[in-house]
């Protein structure tokens, strides 16, 4: 199969034992509505828009509860933050329609929302202090590092289980690994693995705040922790290798140059009466950089775009009175899916989500501009980049908030996408 294999990552053995198959314990697990209720309780958020603003003002007083040093916080184990949550699509049909798409499978955008909420709750579980009913920390999603899927279809009438725990901790950031499983014939089988990075900030969400250190207990946990450290180093390397900071590598230069040479149109230049020079009595044609032709079975990248606009209403706010990151992911995914669908001419299936960077929060009332762009294709695969920015009607300024990368597989082989400019 072209699909990446998605085996359950090796959880610490103490966690693995809780992943018992069957439905016997499912009815005892919290569901996603309870996850969101618990998050509101932890930060003292209100479900009422007007009260919510006041509640956020009251959070400022929690500054005094912040640790001055990480060493002042008690260490935690991986199992301390481990959570299991049920999405009862099979046993509670009344919630099914919210998750249903026209193809009679589960909307992946809704799953992104649920993963985002669960990741935040896992981090609050890791940092919970027994004597504090409300957390002084504002925990927000910084990055979706990776989501890999191993199922094309997520069924809308079978229960789903989410599991996860904190897998690595820095000074003010936490990596969370989550898994999604779906019930079939009495057993839960893997659907996806996800790695999120969360950051802790002060009650006003303005400055970084320290979080409890994480202590691995077993060799398996030490491997998981080491992988989290490697992931962090890779992210640093990736950011420093940006084209805005560093020249392309030799391999990258060759790729770009080959694409450029394949799109030069020497024939048209001659037919247009292009520049001809004489050398030893022979007429030679000089090829212009402006004369480009599209190779067979290809599409110019500039012709593989879709755009969208969202008005960010209070209904889509998170517990900190900003627009919910899961909502942004859902809207970006749906535009990415539509971009892949219109490009490939058939139904695309999500395979992987990479490197969703949350560069700045989105305020309630913002105009959110989304731009989907096919940026790479290979056989049946389509990679889509979605750029998200907010437009301030008062200042008329545009600011990037997120960049999303989605990889889809189409039912049929797709045309090759070809860039025309260096950008």
From TrEMBL:
InterPro entries xref list: HOTDOG_ACOT (IPR033120), HotDog_dom_sf (IPR029069), Thioestr_dom (IPR006683)
Molecular function GO terms recorded: carboxylic ester hydrolase activity; fatty acyl-CoA hydrolase activity
HotDog ACOT-type domain residues: 81-204, 302-414
Signal peptide extent: none
Entry keyword Transit peptide: yes
Keywords: Hydrolase, Mitochondrion, Repeat, Serine esterase, Transit peptide
GO BP terms: acyl-CoA metabolic process
Alphabetical list of CDD domains matching this protein: BFIT_BACH
CC terms in the record's Gene Ontology section: mitochondrion
Principal location class: mitochondrion
Family listed: Belongs to the acyl coenzyme A hydrolase family.
PANTHER family: ACYL-COA THIOESTERASE (PTHR12655), ACYL-COENZYME A THIOESTERASE 9, MITOCHONDRIAL (PTHR12655:SF0)
Protein name according to UniProt: ACOT9 thioesterase
Organism: Glareola pratincola
Taxonomic lineage: Eukaryota, Metazoa, Chordata, Craniata, Vertebrata
Gene name as annotated: Acot9
